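Task: fold both queries, return tokens.
Query 1:
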Amino acid sequence: MTEQTDFSAVKAWPFEEAAKVAARVKSSGKGMALFETGYGPSGLPHIGTFGEVARTTWVRRAFARLTGLPTKLIAFSDDMDGLRKVPDNVPNKELLAQHLGKSLTAVPDPFGTHESFGHHNNARLRAFLDAFGFEYEFASATDYYKSGRFDAALLKMLERHQEVRQVILPTLGPDRRATYSPFLPVHPKTGVVMQVPMEETRPESGTVIWRDPETGERFETPVTGGHVKAQWKADWALRWFALGVDYEMSGKDLIDSVKLSGQICRVLGAEPPVGFTYELFLDAEGGKISKSKGNGLTIDEWLRYAPPESLAQFMYNQPGRAKRLHFDVIPRAVDEYLGNRDKLRKGAETGGLDPANPAWHVHGGALPNTPEPPLTYGMLLNIATVSAAEDADQLWSFVRNYAPGATAESQPMLAQLIDYAVAYSRDFIRPGLKPRAPTAEERPAFEALLAALRENEAEIAARPAGLERAEFIQTLVYDAGRREPFLVPAKDGGRPGVSRGWFNALYQVLVGAEEGPRFGSLAAAYGVARAIALIEGALARDTVAAG
């Protein structure tokens, strides 16, 4: 595809979402689109934060290509929220405990590096987003409330106070229903964000009347200038209304909140933004991920074993479907990303960049600026595992059997993958390996492969390193497997085929893994002499009975 592509015909979910935003912007007569993501700064940014900003960015870019209109992405921090509890992962907990209930930007920073706890976490969020190259405008709830940017919307909410209450009241229990107000006044003496009933609302003066439940003291507080903040669902609606947000996605756990906030937004006089509900992640057993249980995968853990582009690939795939987020999904995500970027590059050489390719979105509609690695991540993992490589230099020595001219300078992506593969194999694969002996029925195939490799060792060495050598070895692998119990009858007079069981047996017997990539490529990189020794060692084990 070329730059003359009809982007409206692209079959990719970011473009489908962008089309909805385009229709909204067109009907409103606006000349730009505003995208928003929200962040609760009582904790540190995490893998879900990455996913939400990345996905929103892809829709934003698709909208720009689709319409040619300018866009903006606001990363909004709810830093005026009251601190409800002391987090487990901070120092100086006693300091925070003295300020419970106050806005996060009014709570001292337990790390001692910023003006407040909210400012500290906001800085972490911005550093996090900057590290991944996201383009955004940071927004602080405290700044927006105190600067007056929400004043007109707050006065509108005060004017329609009862209508807003009627949206929320049916969702509350009897006790909460009696005291609910969309406004949370900031106590003028303690600074605590108060959750109290309003005794009076005075739209003509722009104030609310409430009483301190402990002292009984009565206060009249302006709803403007940062003297109140809105309750959660009303606050979300307030932002949409005040800023004119056109698009915001959210997790499945917020479906009801989105609905109620949308109703409040309409009460205020505006249509809520286009929304998208993404599914939540699951743990290794398919259960819900819980921060307190720590049964998920953190972004730091992912990036210890794979490049950030692979995490983007994982986030791109079917965002409306629940996915397991565990260590064992990493290798597949890496190779899926590598496959897509290779397709993107090859497509560019013939017809242009394909915007339906996930790599187009991961790389912002441009080609990656590094060469394609000659080996997959799965293959590197297998070489690292078979060789028990303890560092990158050891793995490089095997990789150069397959790609003799490769260096860290000429192949920076390959160099990264080698580092990742050594770490992943050491931490997750090798500890669980249990190579088995071949069964009596399997043994003839392994003996045939061993004989073929010995007989053709010189021929293999004479062939160019890389794909040609790997393909030659792979033909020997196929020929060795053309016997029982792996034989598949020939069709239309051709040669008999080989069942998947032969290739599974290769990895179960030689490596201890359930499966792996093409054995010819593994042997070409590992070295034929070492592959021969590997098979000899397997055949030296006691033969086991067929299962």
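Query 1 returned. Query 2:
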Amino acid sequence: MLLSLHIKNIALISELSLEFGPGLNILSGETGAGKSIIIDSLNFVLGDRADRGLIRHGESTASVQAVFSVHNPGLSQLLLENGIQEEDTIIVRRTMNENGRGDCRVNGVLVNLSFLKNMMSLLVDIHSQHENQALLNESNHIRILDNFSHRTSILKEKYRQSFAELKEAERELSAFPDAAERDRKIDILEFQLDEIKKANLREGEEESLIKERAKFYNSQKVLNGLSAAVALLDGDNGGFGANPSLHSAIKELNAIASYDDSYADLSGRLESAKIELADISDTLKRELENSAFDPSKMETIEKRIEEIRKLKRRFGSTVEEIETYAEKASSELAVLRSAAERIGMLKEKIEIQKSIAVKLAKELHAVRSEDAAAFSAAIIKNLTDLGMAESTFAVDFDYPAEDETFSSHLHENGADAVRFMISPNKGEPLRPLSKIASGGEMSRFMLGLKNITAELEDIDTLVFDEIDSGISGRIAKVVACKLYNIAKTRQVLAVTHLPQLASMADTHYLIEKNVIGGKTLTSVEALDEEASLKEIMRLAGSIEKSESGLENAKEMKKWADAYKKSQKLS
């Protein structure tokens, strides 16, 4: 149910807050007062295309916020999929700027326009002379008929389960390539897995090889460095190397050790250094002996690096990714090797589920065909009440012939395509709803249909914009009663020019246009009983102080109250 609507900078509205109640909410006012602005604002927050022309003159941005109380099971999954926490209250806010840009938020979460429209279609249905939403969408007709029927629910649940299994088996079967393609893929996967296995990759191996290769690339520098280090330690041809110099130093210190004990200590320390340097010298000599450049080893390193890089280019940028690819390839190979057996099982399952689905689809058609007659009779009765006694209504079925292609016509709802057809006047052929020309006929048909389907559509709020087009006199009272019938179980918002509809209001709002401070502004006021009677008088064409007009308004209100009371007692 729509709890409130906050409008800012839309057309003649500077800022306006409206609170709506349950039952029948009537909005009335002079022509041009701004009733259409309220509907335009509601359409905007419901997801209609942003029209920069709606922004109030002199302003750069506009916004509409709608607050709903929600008890709709179908909405829960939709909210969950979009990361919006389910609440009993939903706040929807949409903005736009002078460049035509803006955003949409649901409970503070930014959403796209497609999601907004989808969500709001579960909460509000608007009917006007120019907008016929859910009921004029032929894809909804089969759902409306099934909801009216009640008998289809268990059948449809069984059918959909079988249909889902059929589609899943067909999807899996279609994913298998033909035998020749399977053999080709098996050969490729076996070759790839063998290649990966033989490579025997190790984590960090490439980095280690690159370092070793760098060492070979600089082998002459290494040899020169090692030779120089050995020469500096041992001396060149008996020259003054580190080791001979240490030996001479030790000899000199030992010669004077008898004069001072500290010289003996220093001699001992140099002896230790001499042993360490001798060890280093031996190590450098061994490195020099083993550092001879081997071109064949260099070639082996290069080939191994290229082998590793080739595998990385084909199967993954790291050893871990290559191993993951190998695991997936092994699984795919196992599936392909057992494909013939799995394909046989799937084909058998498809035939079984197809047989079950076809049987259930035929049963669904039989039930729908029977209940279509009762549905049509209920529509015709409502149309007769609304002054369209010459109208004819029928449910048109597009149903496949009994042949071998029947199963190809199956869809989520069975094998039926359903379309509502109407002839408003005697002697005229039945035509789709969308082909009805008269606004008055359309309004009455939609109202009659809503009386039957409001309970079935699971939409809490219904909006009728000037549903009274082309209606007057006795039919106006019938329309008022029909609107109230819907409002007994659903919230109804109706914009009207008819006093009969206004007298039936549970809450009556007056929309006015005033000039304040040199600016034209639209305002909306919830009317008390006395103010409502005055507005009913105006709608009926009475002057403000007419006693007979007031009596007529009171009489109309008395009639409406009596009808409401009779409905509550029934």
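Both queries returned. Flag for query 2: The chain has a mean pLDDT of 86.
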